[in-house]
Amino acid sequence: MCNYRFRQPLTGGEQYHYGIISTDGVNISTSGREYIKVIEELKELKKHYDPAAKIPARYAARKMAILYNADNRWEMDNQPQTNQWEFLTHVKRYYGAVKQFGAPTDVITEAKDFSKYPVLIAPAYELLDANLVERWRQYAENGGNLILTCRTGEKNRNGKLWEMQWAEPIYKLIGAKVDFYDLLPDSVTGTIKMGNNTYTWNNWADVVEPFTGTEVWASYSNQFYAGKAAVTSRKLGKGTVTFVGPDTDDGQLEKAVLRKVYQQAGIAIENYPEGVMFDWRDGFWVGVNYSDVPYNVTVPANGKVLLGSKVLKPADVVIWKE
């Protein structure tokens, strides 16, 4: 927990920042009452804490990481090319999807070991070098499932376009050529076909030309782009490399791709509604509901609810142990 203000300020630029004590300097504010409630709840949870608790195998199996580099974010914030591109929004499409799968997720830098994550996403990893591409290759060959997304590999670490074909350093890794990129005005949408479902895009599209042996999972299905590959995947050693060319508004295509990666890897996932998330930590299962409707929580027979209830109301929490 983090304390910010004890009293709500009466003047200045932060007048609307709640404090534990209200503006009269005497009474406890709404957030203050919540603060007290959390203190009491933590006292109760400490009674059930088990330092030897081990992470459940089914939960650990779907662990994944998002690879983040501040230079990538800065470069795209500085040169987005379109007002529809926003790096963190792009990342959250993938993060939101895997949280609906019930996957524990770490945001890591290149300093970390990739090998302990069954799934690794490098979203819009615009700046890279040969060493990183080689690490990705080794990760996949040793059994990891790597997912790269649009704008990856366009520039070197200094933000300079490669003096070679567009994004060429990743061609051998993804088993395809990024033929070209495009974007549409916000008043126009293109379509993408994946299986029996159709998705729309207009923010960004890397148009892909697969090499022999690389599968096409989704294709652009209208306008000038019709028939060209949008999402590709290939086996590499014991693992896989999947490339997602488009960036969509609703994230449903990205979610479908992630689901297929997990399914083909034989990793069981959950199917929680948007805004409902469950995670395990220190022996406790914790569920929160950021949606606007209640959610009925399935607690196993050996589970004991310690906080909240099996009907998880909006803006509420449930904690249980198994």
Task: Please give the structural blueprint.
Elements: H1 30-46, H2 57-60, E1 64-67, H3 70-78, H4 87-100, E2 105-108, E3 119-122, H5 130-141, E4 145-149, H6 171-174, E5 176-182, E6 190-194, E7 197-201, E8 204-210, E9 215-220, E10 229-236, E11 239-244, E12 246-247, H7 252-264, E13 276-281, E14 284-289, E15 295-296, E16 304-307, E17 311-312, E18 317-321
Parallel strand pairs: 1-2, 1-3, 3-4, 4-11
Antiparallel strand pairs: 5-8, 6-7, 6-9, 8-12, 9-10, 10-11, 13-14, 14-18, 15-17, 16-18
Helix pairs in contact: 4-7
Any overview of this molecule?
With 322 residues, this protein is α+β, with helices and mostly antiparallel strands. It is 23% helix and 27% strand. It has seven helices and 18 strands. The chain is globular, with a radius of gyration of 23 Å. The chain starts with 29 loop residues before the first helix and ends with a strand. The mean pLDDT is 96.
- The total beta strand count reads 18
Query: Quaternary state, please?
Result: single chain
Q: What summary fits the major beta sheet?
A: 9 strands, mixed
Strand order of the largest sheet: 2-1-3-4-11-10-9-6-7
Low-confidence stretches: none
Per the principal axes of the C-alpha atoms, what is the gross shape?
globular
Strand content: 25-35%
Provide the helix percentage.
Answer: 10-25%
Radius of gyration in whole Å, from Cα?
23 Å
Give the overall pLDDT as a whole number. 96
How far is the first residue's CA from the last residue's CA?
Answer: 25 Å
Secondary-structure element sequence? HHEHHEEHEHEEEEEEEEHEEEEEE
Work out the helix count.
7
Structural class: alpha+beta
